[in-house]
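Box S2. Input/output pair 1.
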Amino acid sequence: MLRERQRSMFGAAAAPLLLLGLAAPAVAAAPPIGLPAGAWAVCPDEKAQGCIDSVTITPDGGVAAPLAAHGLYLEVTTEDEAGISIGWAVKGWNETTVPKEVRDGTVNLELRVGPYPARYTTATARDLSVTRTTTGDGNTTVHLAGRPVQIDWTTGPLLLACLTASDCGGADTMADAGGSGYAFSGNTQDLSAWGEPYLSALDGFHFGSDAQAKPPVVLMVASPVPFWSMVLGGPHLDATGNAARGSFNAWIPPRYFAQHDTNAEAALAVGFDVVAVENNQDVSLPFTARLRDDGVAIDVPHLGYSIKTVNVFNRPSTVDPEATVPDVPGNLTVQPAAGRLGAAWQPPPGDTGPEVETYRARAFDAATGGKVVSSCAVTAPATSCDLPGLEPGGSYWVTVSALNRLGEGVSVAPRVPGTPT
């Protein structure tokens, strides 16, 4: 188990900013070390540095091909907002022109970064893997691999607030079409703005998620027991009106464990506990963890939004790794009333997950998509509630979903129509 350190693992100024998903205080950016200013080009020869060595995509079940073969393209830029870093993104994920097997494929990207110390990567991606190869002359090639991820983000009035993890809306806030789709992008940095112990302990750390709000660097906390932490956020509902189910994966490097006088194998033998904190309630999440490249790879496949803190402890978890959100409630009926609709349903049939705690019914202004115009929630075992504030004679479509400690399940579909009197 990781041993407690007596000294603080973060600067006083950096801690509150990280908890908001913001960057730490920036240091003056030094001139790029072998990196181009602005956009990167393809490497012209074997000796060139600060350039794109190669990039391909392998469709699910297919063979590697250039991005252009599938209508995709790559952008890489040198950024200097908080120290020098490298931003990269594969673009063109049009769902009508790019087949699903391509969108489910694996991108392999190699960047020659010269002597630049590419220590840490944060990405919008799934199954992310980042490795480095350094030659005898001190030049490094960064190898990035992963798959594009479905994102459910907002581009409306909450855009900035959600990006900074201050406000991603409430239980009825939906992602919009402009912020929905596929993405594979990220930022690789040298951690120079963070100093020690981040420079040492997080050298090689990488993190991928579909969250709209995610920190530039995870927060390391030393007391009362060592753990690392981050704030993740996004709209609670996707653009179809279903609860957004997020995910993240991370690789914890050997130096992190050495910082705590242990190693990856010993830490894995103790176990990990991935804890989501929302509204002052702690919930251990299902996850998988395995040894990889002398570190530990952690994958959390299901994570609900709006905004929550996620802490990763080196201690045994009591969560059932097969636990899930509830199944769909049954037999939804809608009864008209004066300026409202009454919704009634039955509990999810044969649900074997954690006990249902609440139900939430919503009225939409369209049979599909649309927006939430009214909602109501009740504590189980109650199975009915009224949707108020509706226009008499108006057309509405109602659905309901069940919630347990792991989050909100899939809503009843198709939505049931109703017209208030």
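Box S3. Input/output pair 2.
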Amino acid sequence: MIRPIVPADESAVRSLQSNLSYADSQLIDAAIDGPFVGRVAVHEGSVVGYAIALPGEETTLSELVVAADFRRHGYGRALVDAIAEVSGADRTVVTTPAENEGAERFYRAIGFAVRERLPSFYADGTDALRLVRGE
């Protein structure tokens, strides 16, 4: 089940966020209180994934995490689709570390295309890929 993020989800989402190499802890508050939107994937009452995005003319998917044991079960796609639906934008963009081949494969599989490589995008000098779905 995919539903909006609520304050009671904060602890579970923060725990999942620790799986990200480049996370912004303030995004969780922004998803709960606005202006960002957030969705969680729930399995048997437990939060097993989340997505946070900034809606606008194009939606910027800021974070997406699915717990390792629940990957390849459709939660990631469902979260991205739910974010796209709530945002109402025709285009969704995401930035991911260039060396994260698993993330690139996932995004390509759900309709994203690499638009550009962003040299030294992250503070530690790591390059990123900007992927886009929709036009």
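Caption for Box S3: The chain is about 30% helix and 35% strand. The two ends are 28 Å apart (CA to CA).
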